[in-house]
Amino acid sequence: MEFWTGLLQNMLQTAIAPTTAAFVLAAIGLNVHFGFTGLMNMGQAGFMLVGAYGFGISAVMGADFWVALLIAIGAAVVFALILGIPTLKLRGDYLAIVTISAAEIIRMVVKLAALQDITGGPSGISGQKYRPIFTELSPLPDGRTTILGITYANTGVDDWWTRIVAWALVAVFILVTWALMRSPWGRVLKGIREDEDAVRSLGKSSYAYKMQALIIGGVMGALGGIVMALPAAMQPDSMGRPTTFNLWMIMLLGGAATIFGPLLGSILFFVVRLVLTSFAGEFIPSSVLNAQQTEQLAWILIGISLILLVVFRPQGILGNKKELSFNV
Fold this sequence. Notes:
Largest sheet: 2 strands, antiparallel
Radius of gyration: 20 Å
Strand order of the largest sheet: 1-2
Number of strands: 2
């Protein structure tokens, strides 16, 4: 009984964790790129990294929260322009190769020993150096609060304040995405996804619309990077290729071109991984599988599940097969 109670509590803690919210934000941005516009962006982790480091470096250099936030957003916009101007005329696999390469270039630059004093090099930036400008904004009283059996400090490192802000951002951007995709602008994006030549024949600049989508989705990814870095530290390898692949898994799991798909996909992704590792740790002897092997087994099972999902339900859990397929 104690195992089941602890598992349910851990599932709830995972579902509301800032990291889960960060992946929801980045997946919403990726959904704008691929799900609604048809852009094969394989470098969303690059936007997360640019946003996180733009915020962190600004804070370390003395900027207040709002200035640091604007710098992070500006860095994401500049990265989108640099990435998009020469590449958005590419299609499919070619765009995917360019975007994943650009994200890796950014990550390697951040890790350079020559930039150690600015970016922290491979070790990154400690959260103690940039988190205070965020915690100072907290209106919550000192102390700890228990909700549904879960207790956190109101403000601090692992706190309710970070969770409130993170999930408030998720709610805002879900609403923004819903409004944008119901607007004429959003309908043009869907038209580009389905038949770009037809959109151009109607006098619309598909290049301009794709650039706008890349910027908006990139800014969402940058905010996801900031949220991901707030509870702990800023480390470049935590926003590398695996992060982009996980974001694609989350988006496809929940359903591309859906409003709530990234939310459902992210929660399921982290909760299912927790459940798999918990069950394996509880019922499989350590002589058969140690903790590291249990984690690897969880990833294997998640990969198999994704393969089955793509084969039998390519539109994802919430997706509509008539609206989107993998033949984009």
